[in-house]
Design a protein that fits this description.
Length: about 170
């Protein structure tokens, strides 16, 4: 009889272990489903390639006023500096009259991700020239990324535009 009791205890322990495993698996499955359904990915926005077939359509879109949140970029793609602490003789950035939002921008080296310039806020129609970097770089050529932050009416960033930039120091 004691052998039968031990078998019953073993069966109860096995049933409890199976029940615990089922609960753990169900909980993990619930978490995975929640994480997968909770992530709503935004569609990727792509630029349109202009070719002979669509050039008229693209030109018509360019004639329309710039929609809110869009940004027309006016800047040099290469900035030259005589030294790392001197103002540039050609760096120019403008927030064009066609834009609807104020902006500011940061310049970051692509090799180190160091931010080497932080601009003030540029209202529509204003520009910067004679730019001096915030970091004193040694002579050389630097590949950089300019990140424009488009601002809402409260000067909060609502979107960004990123462009490449080459900086030449002492060359």
């Amino acid at each position: 009889m004691s052998e039968q009791k031990e078998n019953n205890k073993g069966r109860k322990g096995g049933k409890i272990a199976v029940a615990v495993c089922i609960v753990v698996i169900a909980a993990l499955l619930g978490v995975v489903i929640y994480l997968l359904l909770g992530k709503k990915e935004e569609p990727v926005r792509r630029n349109v390639v202009v070719n002979e077939d669509n050039v008229d359509e693209v030109l018509e879109q360019l004639e329309d006023p710039v929609p809110a949140g869009s940004y027309e970029v006016k800047m040099n793609s290469t900035w030259n500096f005589t030294s790392g602490d001197a103002p540039s003789d050609n760096a120019y950035v403008e927030n064009a009259e066609a834009n609807t939002n104020s902006v500011y921008f940061d310049v970051t080296r692509t090799d180190t991700e160091e931010t080497i310039f932080e601009s003030p806020i540029l209202p529509v129609g204003s520009h910067l020239e004679n730019i001096t970097l915030d970091s004193n770089l040694p002579a050389g050529t630097y590949d950089c990324l300019v990140t424009y932050h488009l601002l809402d009416e409260n000067d909060e960033s609502m979107s960004t535009v990123k462009l490449t930039l080459t900086i030449n120091i002492g060359q």
